Amino acid sequence: MQEIWQALGQAVDLIVSLDTEVIQISLRSLYISGCSILIAALFCVPIGGLIHFHDFSGKRVVINIIQTFYSLPTVVVGLLVFLFISRSGPMGGLELMFTPTAVVIGQVILIMPVLTGMMINALSGVDRAIRDTALSSGASNTQAMWAILFEARFAVVGALILGFGRAISEVGAAMMLGGNIRGYTRILTTAISLETQRGDIVLSLALGIILISIAMVVSITMNILLQRY
Questions:
Q1: Rounded to whole angstroms, how far apart are CA atoms 197 and 5?
Q2: Please, what is the angle between helix 141-151 and helix 20-53, to 10°?
Q3: How far is the C-alpha of 188 from the C-alpha of 171, rounded, in Å?
Q4: Sequence-separated (6 or more) residues with CB below 8 Å from residue 72
Q5: Mind listing the pLDDT tens digit of every residue in the chain (229 residues)?
Q6: Euclidean distance between CA atoms 14 and 143, whole angstroms
Q7: How many distinct structural domains can be found in the chain?
Q8: Are 145 and 197 in contact (CB under 8 A)?
Q9: What angle do CA 219, 223, 229 make, to 5 degrees?
Q10: Pairwise CA distance, residues 201 & 111, whole Å
Q11: At 45, which CATH number?
């Protein structure tokens, strides 16, 4: 037990001293996950709006399928993307394998169902009278949609934060697509996995503390926004 407390103390020292490797891995994780959530939002916000604002045959089935993919295994996403961007795949000529871009692609695919489903839920929570009032006041469908988005802004931001948390905590796709290359594609989760196997418990603990801290900030922020909503 004493060895554990000693390792924990050394891990905290690494963080406090702003160890170069720890900072680089943390910043790279934030950058990759940040890019992933921004790209996913460009697709998921409009898609969620289209699904919510339009009635069509099979709408409930589409929503159920989206919700089913909430728990999509990260290794399955990694496998599917690998088949496309590997040398023998249809996108092999782009040479994306074992690059940060490959990790971003995997994370985008992973969080898109969560973000789309959360968007639909956020918009569904807005009083329908707001849309009717906007349309009766002469607003176009697009303007009415923006009015509803504004009303649901805290829930929308909460959905983005949840998607970010899902992205930064995944390991399977990042390991398969990024290769865990030091100084290039190594992020918090893959580094923790590698350093634990190598026996560098101090560095693993330092990275784990940072990852848990990020998850805590994400959770607290989301709860605050949802309470305001």
A1: 20
A2: 130
A3: 9
A4: 110, 113
A5: 677 788 888 888 989 998 999 999 999 999 999 999 999 999 998 898 888 878 888 889 999 999 999 888 999 999 999 999 998 889 988 999 999 999 999 999 999 999 999 888 888 877 677 766 766 776 666 777 777 777 777 788 888 888 998 999 999 999 999 999 999 999 999 999 999 999 889 999 999 999 999 888 887 887 776 666 5
A6: 51
A7: 1
A8: no
A9: 145
A10: 30
A11: 1.10.3720.10
Buried b (16+ CB within 10 A) or exposed e, 72-98: bebeebbeebbeebeeeeebeeeebbb
For 57: left if phi > 0, alpha if psi spans -120 to 50, otherwise beta; the answer is beta
What are the distances in angstroms from CA 51 to CA 39, 78, 135, 222, 229? 19, 27, 19, 24, 21
User: How many CA atoms are closer than 13 Å to the CA of 42, on its beta-carbon side?
Assistant: 7
Q: How buried is residue 121: exposed, middle or buried, by Cβ count under 10 Å (0-12/13-18/19+)?
A: middle
For the entire predicted model, the pTM comes to 0.89
Q: Which two tokens stand for residue 223?
A: 């709860």
Please state the separation of Cα 205 from the chain's center in Å. 22
Sign of CA dihedral 158, 160, 164, 166: positive
Q: Which domain range does residue 196 map to?
A: 2-228
In the block, residue with structure tokens 């943390």? 26
